[in-house]
Amino acid sequence: MPLYKLADFDPNYRETFGGDDIRALDLYTEGGVKIGSVADVLVDPDGRFRYLVIDTQYDSSDKRILLPIGLSRIDYNQHRVYVDGLSKEQVQRLPEYRDNITVDYDYEEQVRGAYRPISSDVAHNRDTYNYQQDASLYNLNDENHQTFKLYEERLVTSKSRVKTGEVAVGKHIETETARVSVPIERERVVIERVNPTDAGAAVNPSELHFQEGEIARIEIYEETPEIHKEAFVREEVRVRKVVDHDTVEAQETIRREELDINTEGDLPINRVDTTPNDPV
Fold this sequence. Notes:
- By secondary structure, the chain is an alpha+beta fold.
- 10% of the residues lie in helices and 15% in strands.
- A hairpin with a 2-residue loop joins strand 4 and strand 5.
- The chain starts with a strand and ends in a 142-residue tail after the last helix.
């Protein structure tokens, strides 16, 4: 049966476990001695935890091994994994785990052989083997894993942009009749017939010049207005947006679960509070 690293099987595994990351936990004995840390988790095709990949630290020597999940007790509240009975001798007998190793049946048998009781002489067949044949190694002990979480509601804010209106700026043409006054000049001829001052005086016949036809020509002019249209910039219009800032207050009723502990009799109970501080 193939095994997968936790992040390869479920890239969003932290969301699956409510934000908890088992790969960030340290490994302790039940007596409280730190013996290593969790480097990774191997799961089967159904997503069941089968092994914790442990970086052990014994006598200043480091070795990466596999720990069957049934031998551990995970405590997310204390950010620890507890193991009972992992001795230095077992670590020495265990095959070293590396990322490029293929965890096949033969490799798992070496691992299981280091954890099985010495008195166990049960023969296993690679073709029929299943993890229930080593239930003590792979089944989580419900008595040691009775954990539950207290939930609380929080107000989570977010913002969305909503279109509230639209401003369109355009142009249209209006017409009107414009009037303009242009002064012009127009020439005209004035013909006056008046009596001469020497009327009645005799004229010397030699000075007489009787003639017919045109005797005078005067050209008459007048001005005519010339009117045309030209376009000029009247004004400029600038369009822009400004952002006004405001704060919107909202309130909701939120719920939070609190722990109730009911006991009967005079029982010593130690409570260790490792919960994080409430968010601001």
